[in-house]
Request: fold
Amino acid sequence: MTAFVSLRELRASSRGIGKWRLRVVSAEVESFKYGKQTPQKEGKSLHCVLLSQDSALYCRGVVKRNGTSAKAQEDFDRAVAKFKPTLIFDISKVTFDEKSDRAWNSSPVKHVIDLAKSHTDPVLQSTADLPQAPAPGEDLAKLVEVSQQQLCDVTAVVKSLENERKASTRYGERKIADITIIDGSATTEGKTAFATFPVFLPTDEAGLKNFKLLEDSEGQPHAISFFGLVCTPKKGTVTISTGPSFYFKSCQGGAKADKLMQTFEQLQRLEAAELQQIATQDTWMPQEKKDWKAPPAIHCSCILLQAALREGVSLYHRAASDDGGAFPDGYLVQINHSRIQEPACGTDVATKDGLRLFVPVRVADRTGSVELRMREDVALELSRCTDKDDFEQAVQRSHVSFPMLASFRVLIRERHDAGAAEHGEEESLSAVIVTGEEQRLDVEFSPNKALHELNPLLALLPTPTDRMLIAHLNEIDVSPHSGLIVGQDRAPCDCALSFIASTRESDFEVFGEGHRILTLGVTAVDFRSAPGDAKDVVAGNVASVCTMKNMPRFTLSPTRPGSPMFALVLISHVIQPAATGSAADQSPTFIADKVQLLAQDTVADCKAMLRKLCRASDDVRFEGTPKRAVEWAAGSTPYSGRKARRLSASPTADGLED
Reply:
């Protein structure tokens, strides 16, 4: 008879030779959208919790529908019918779902079993004695060891349930309370750990029943298992919140529950000095986060947004009147193919009370620039910082890095300032970046003729000098009077985006507290010409200043001999060669403030994007007069553009000629 292996032994080296007897505790079908095409495809997957002989050891299982055909759906329905809750299976020849994210798997065994690809033999329930429900055995005190945001499961008793209230959320009416739990585990200081967090429950019959379970368990020797707690590390502690996968159940058995029953009286007698709070969440009424990626947004550009903000509430109210009333939450505008400049060292990036990030940024595109504020969640997502403290430290060390190009949405609202009103000052507008992403380079996100629809509005404005122009490296120069200039018409700009290739190793030298990277003989990639007609030429050298931490992002050394390293570079200055010097000194040196290395398979899409942006820019004529008010025609303002339905994408229109 085959001996079953402990679930603790499930790993890559044992999955092919071991055998595990597991009970399906829960099975839920999830539907989702995927793919870059429009409309997106619909996927389905079955997610199971699989419990072993030890109630503290359980893992996840998954079945994914393989495509959208009738046969794929039939196979999936068969799997849903097979893996029903309470059923038991002998599982061998295990295949893992390698795409699962461990951070969002709260099970103690992190491997996820692909049930469709593993051997799964049903077992008669009468012949197997397995627990009915999992009983997490991890200590509460161990939550402080999480190194990133992580879902966690714990078993504990309810110490208190306080501050009961109700609130309306986008998920409906919710009953809320702040719960404190304790399990007798000791912290590194030798004290007993406890944690406080809010729970949100529906006000329907099932939700009220669950709430009563917590009320009845308060201060009683009744163990509760909490599943799917969202734990986020923060300065030696963690914050706990409850996400979509959170639930709890009464724990009737298992080693942890037994221990809690034995030690309950001792836990009740602990004094405040003997306790240590290792996890908390501020008491709050829920303010459900709005998904700003979902609604369509007005297609716009930096200079048009700047003009709208400069015109203030008068143009805002006029546009609202033209539309029959403003968008309920203000006006949502979208700008693509833009550069978000990182805040300089020493910049104050938090709100006045210091509780959250509210980052001042300058953004630029081919039409101009504008200064905005950015919400904390967007700043963390684009910078890949973990939290507010991490972002602030990165700013002070000049380590913050946003994508080279981004697509973002700005919420424009009327700012009601009581102090300004008391002094007879006009109300103003607030403009905050509420969502964004790195600009996608795929063909479906290429610039199209929707850019031409902005030209009549751009023609009302004066020629900007603070824009980001797109140019070949050998078209970029400097003027003693105008600064950086581009092209034969010597158009002034703040920075220039270019495409290069390097076949040489980069050299390094100490530069203050950082390094200066110099790459000689860089090639200017010809992206203006049609595919097949491109003529790349050696244009000069590229130099950048960086820190030790971000040095890899600026290094242009090829990763494989004979294969060039392609990159987008943001040029802010050009140093022309001296009249005398070596041959290497006779080439101009282009100062790159930012470098984005490109994989070989993205080169063609990147060329196409730059080529089309250049074509669109060639048709723009700025004919306005500086410091003169713009005369916006009825129904033709920065608020009247067509709507973009997805980040990175323009409104639906014909493609630009290639």
User: Anything to note?
Assistant: The chain has four domains: 7-127, 140-280, 297-464+626-644, 468-618. Residues 417-426 have pLDDT under 50 and may be disordered. The two ends are 69 Å apart (CA to CA). The first helix runs from residue 70 to 82.
